[in-house]
Amino acid sequence: MTDLYQTQRAMRNMRRAAIQRGVVAILDVGTSKIACLILKFDGPDKFHDGDGIGSMAGQSAFRVIGAATTRSRGIRFGEIDAMAETERAVRTAVQAAQKMAHVRVDHVIACFSGGQPRSYGLAGEIDLQNTVVTEEDIARVLASSDVPDTGVDRDVMHAQPVNFALDHRSGLADPRGQIGNRLACDIHMLTVDTTVVQNLIHCLKRCDLELAGVASSAYAAGISSLVEDEQELGAACIDMGGGATSLSIFIKKHMIYADSVRLGGCHVTNDIAKGLQIPLAVAERIKTFHGGVVATGMDDREMIEIGSDSGDWEKDRRQISRSELIGIMRPRVEEILEEVRSRLDGAGFEHLPSQQIILTGGCSQIPGLDTLAPKILGQQVRIGRPLRVQGLPQAATGASFASAVGLCLFAAHPQDEWWDFDIPAEGYPARSLRKAVKWFRDNW
Q1: How far apart are CA 235 and CA 186, in angstroms?
Q2: What are the φ and ψ backbone dihedral angles of 163, each rounded to 5 degrees?
Q3: Is there a contact between 89 and 34 (Cβ–Cβ < 8 Å)?
Q4: pLDDT tens digits, 399-417
Q5: Residues of the chain above pLDDT 90, percent
Q6: Which residues on adjacent β-strands are paired with residue 431?
Q7: What single string gives the DSSP state of each residue in 278-344?
Q8: How many CB atoms within 10 Å of residue 239?
Q9: Sign of the C-alpha dihedral, residues 196, 202, 208, 210?
Q10: For 296-339, how does the pLDDT look when each residue is reduced to its tens digit (9 = 90+)?
Q11: Which of 227, 295, 339, 369 is most solvent-facing, going by the fewest CB within 10 Å?
């Protein structure tokens, strides 16, 4: 873990240097598309420290000056499957964005949904040497936390302090400068498969790019799609992508749980292609223009011409009713939502004071999902779009860009993480695993 701790710290410094130089690229490496945004920051003089742990410290004003997307190649389940193809797709997206921005970019901040993320809740407690909480005390309490044995070939992607308690007062966002005797801290730690991150770093190196930060798609989608009240009171964000569906739970403006289901919009397209015996490209077009998950009486009469080009005239001119298409799509969408529901139940989502669920990502745009999802996930479901970011082209404001927009916010307003503090090297004991959502049950 110490190696990764150094890597994350190096990335953090690289990101800071890139922002002070003025430009940084954002890369959302997805299964169906690769999106690249280029951010321009307003000079180092406007780069100032924020106001506390997790409060998006070190805020910096930015605007989007370049944007490009390309069809993803060589990626399955949000992970690199064919290196050379992925490299070509990344180069295409980055070069198109650079051309639009009229600027060359060396550093990228990336996010992905694969890597089988796992959440852990850690807790640490120390006696204060002086009565006033200092930066060193924060480092010591983080070091005292009971780091679980995450297994071989797992890397820590996020390690964020999510709650502090000073003596009998809990729920503190930032205890620095406050007076007390005993400091306790809860940390949310997210681990991913090491090889997935290594492959991404290697792919970017082949594209002559340096990785200046990496984030989970679940986290990025959450910070862009949840409004401030939802992040504060508690909500789940479901990012329905092409090859994977990411989910994250937020409370008190912190992510406290993340997971990923290896099912997404590409599986729906595959079902249509197999069910109607048509090429994937035709299936994708039919899904996009005519798809849905809730059938009405009108849908029996609405006929869709398949319009394939296999050479068999009879087969190519076939027509199906929209209700037949819905009959193919609905079972798979239900399966995705059922799997998400079981993951939320396993995380203890029902213990949150608010049961709000936000659906985002490209697959969330399927017509009728707002009617189907509440039947499976619960009544408080809405379809979310990412925040408007200055300079973002109209074409990149939809739900499928939730992770990319969230990554912009992550780059400009990073939350304090474990590696932002000078933690003593001996502070890595391997002890028991705790439930990822236990702390807020005790405190809220």
Answers
A1: 19
A2: -165, 135
A3: yes
A4: 999 999 999 999 888 887 7
A5: 57
A6: 148
A7: --HHHHHHHHHHH--S---HHHHH-EEE----SS-HHHHT-EEEHHHHHHHHHHHHHHHHHHHHHHH
A8: 35
A9: positive
A10: 888 888 898 887 676 676 766 788 999 999 999 999 999 999 99
A11: 227
As a residue count, the chain comes to 444
Q: Is the pLDDT of residue 433 over 60?
A: no
Q: Which residues make Cβ contacts (< 8 Å) with residue 303, sequence separation at least 6?
A: 319, 320, 321, 322
Which token pair is 117?
Answer: 């993320």
Question: What's the pLDDT at 434?
Answer: 40
Strands, sheet with 107-112, edge to edge from the N-terminal-most edge strand: 62-71, 33-41, 23-29, 107-112, 210-216
Q: What is the CA radius of gyration of the chain?
A: 23
In angstroms, the Cα distances linking 218 to 43, 238, 247 are 30, 8, 5
3-state secondary structure of 275: helix
Q: Is 242 helix (H, G, I), strand (E, B) or coil?
A: coil
Q: Which amino acid is at 220?
A: A
C-alpha–C-alpha distance, residues 54 and 82, integer Å: 36
Residues near 339 by Cβ (< 8 Å), separated by ≥ 6?
Answer: 245, 261, 263
Please enumerate in sequence order all residues whose Cβ is within 8 A of that of 382, keeping only pairs 6 or more positions apart, or say none: 356, 357, 358, 359, 370
With the C-alpha atoms ordered 337, 338, 339, 345, is the resulting torsion angle positive or negative? positive
pLDDT in tens, 168-185: 898 888 899 999 999 999
Are 56 and 413 in contact by the 8 Å Cβ rule? The answer is: yes
Beta strands in 147-252, from DSSP E residues, in sequence order: 147-148, 154-166, 169-172, 182-193, 210-216, 235-240, 245-251
Model's pTM, two decimal places?
0.88
Tokens of 136: 């060193």
What pLDDT score was predicted for residue 336?
A: 96
Average pLDDT score over residue span 227-247: 93
Query: To which H or E segment does residue 111 belong?
Result: strand 107-112
